[in-house]
Amino acid sequence: MSMLPISERKPIMRLINVSRKYITGEGILQVLNGANLDLRPGEMVGLVGPSGSGKSTLLHTAGLLEFPDSGIVEIDGQDAANMGERERTLTRRRKLGFVYQFHHLLPELNAIDNVAAPLMIDGVKKSIARDRARTLLSSMGLSEREKHQPGQLSGGEQQRVAIARSLANRPRVLIADEPTGNLDPSTTTSVFQSLFDTARTEQVAVLVATHNLQLTSYMDRVLTLKDGQLETANLSL
């Protein structure tokens, strides 16, 4: 684990003057307009703001799911604009992890095989993939539940499995869109604590969009989008 303060670590991901607009029936909607962001190993960055402010567009652009109209999305020093489609797909699979409000677990697989699945898809031997999955489930407090299928798990347990799965390939960046939005308050706290602890241990940079301002106490920084640009959020409002 890096002993440098987070602020002194080299960024894993950089968004540089990123702009994104959409053409609607009412004209051009400028969602991102020169947005800048650096994400560093082990750093947890919160993204807050009302619906429609551009949070999902920012996450999709950072996650290489959408192309910016202009600007640079850089991962480990490489400009994603210079990647071919295959390299872009491999970068998403190997360097980026995704967690959503709904877990999207495979119902026919138990917890350990849900977590191991991304590794096996990438050609990792099943026994090695399962060992990695077992380690992650343990870090999420789910050692006793690894052989249970999603239908046998609580909502919070299912979401912890989804987080473990997102970390299976040892991504450099984890992008989370309302990861606890479907959970009750007490479950939300325990799930987010698991995410926070594992991100620190794994030295993953985490970008989390959330409406839950109570979760911002876990964040190293909290940002919001204003006029298409990222700025420090005013949480006193």
Automatic annotation (TrEMBL):
Residues 13-237 form the ABC transporter domain. InterPro entries: AAA+_ATPase, ABC_transporter-like_ATP-bd, ABC_transporter-like_CS, ABC_transpr_LolD-like, MacB-like_ATP-bd, P-loop_NTPase. The keyword Nucleotide-binding applies. Residues 139-158 are annotated as: Disordered. Pfam families: ABC_tran. The keyword Transmembrane helix does not apply. GO terms for molecular function: ATP binding. Keywords: ATP-binding, Nucleotide-binding, Transport. Belongs to the ABC transporter superfamily. PANTHER family: IMPORT ATP-BINDING PROTEIN (PTHR24220), LIPOPROTEIN-RELEASING SYSTEM ATP-BINDING PROTEIN LOLD (PTHR24220:SF689). This is ABC transporter ATP-binding protein.
